[in-house]
Design a protein that fits this description.
The chain is of the alpha/beta class. It has a single domain, classed as Rossmann fold, CATH 3.40.50. It has nine helices and seven strands; from the N terminus they run E-H-E-H-E-H-E-H-E-H-E-H-H-E-H-H. A seven-stranded parallel β-sheet has the order 3-2-1-4-5-6-7, sandwiched between helices. Strand 5, helix 5 and strand 6 form a beta-alpha-beta unit. Helix 3 runs parallel beside helix 4, helix 4 packs parallel to helix 5 and helix 8 packs across helix 9.
Length: 265
């Protein structure tokens, strides 16, 4: 059983949803948390919510869509914290638009945040973990990162790209005692659908019906931590909707029939 006492855990997307819930869980387990997102005010709220444990939370706001100074940013965090034991790439963005109504600039925006933002931070942290010869890096995918999904072409593509990168990362760095895992959430009641962009780049502003029936971010966070403790390569998070992963793999003809009827999660 892994002991997180005194470990330094860096969490992106920490101002809401799964990322926020993970901050609370890790500080309760004795970890020192670096909390990041592009919402500085909300990060301070999360820190303050930790009460007596708030001294173990450092707010480090940055935008995943702009990684031009990422090395300098990471250097400053490591200089303050001393090391990074866990990096949880939770931050990301989604959209709700069919392919022909999704302009290329929107595909690029989704990919820039979900894929390039994630791997930029990962590549900047990795040398420190190699030097200390330990670490665990996680990326957040989705069940839509394992198959195509209506209204999420760019989102699905960006998440599928993470699987290839992080599997390679794990294979290359097992010799350095560094693990790489992918978190695969199904339906979790977060704000991701509220903030999902339509074909014009405007926020959808509502929760998908399916997500409203999903598990809580708190339950998702506990499942993720359980997966980290077990060094699981893929951490499945959700409920009955995860069955679609197995249907896609073993009964693809049924998957395409079912997916064709889906309009939203």
């Amino acid at each position: 059983m892994k002991d997180f006492t005194g470990k330094v855990v860096w969490i992106t997307g920490a101002s809401s949803g799964i990322g926020e819930a993970l901050v609370y869980e890790f500080v309760k387990l004795g970890a020192k948390v670096i909390a990041s997102s592009n919402e500085a005010t909300e990060l301070e709220r999360v820190k303050n919510n930790c009460g007596n444990l708030s001294e173990n939370v450092t707010c480090a706001p940055f935008d995943l869509s702009d990684t031009s100074d990422i090395k300098k940013f990471v250097d400053s965090q490591v200089s303050s914290a001393g090391r990074i034991d866990y990096l949880l790439n939770i931050g990301g963005i989604s959209h709700r638009s069919i392919v022909e109504e999704t302009p290329l600039w929107l595909d690029r925006k989704i990919m820039e945040i979900n894929y390039f933002g994630t791997i930029a931070l990962t590549k900047a942290v990795l040398p420190y973990m190699i030097n200390q010869r330990s670490g665990h890096i996680l990326a957040t995918s989705s069940i839509a990162g394992r198959f195509g999904f209506p209204l999420r072409s760019a989102y699905s593509a960006s998440k599928q790209a993470l699987h290839g990168f992080f599997e390679t990362l794990h294979i290359e760095n097992s010799k350095n005692n560094i693990y790489a895992s992918v978190i695969i959430p199904g339906r979790v009641r977060t704000k991701i659908s509220f903030r999902a962009l339509d074909g014009q780049g405007k926020e959808q502003g509502k929760m998908d019906d399916g997500l409203a029936k999903g598990i809580t971010p708190e339950k998702a966070a506990r499942t993720i931590i359980k997966g980290i403790r077990r060094n699981k390569r893929e951490i499945l998070v959700g409920g009955s909707e995860l069955t679609m992963l197995f249907i896609r793999r073993y009964l693809p003809f049924l998957f395409f029939r079912l997916a064709g009827k889906i309009k939203s999660t």
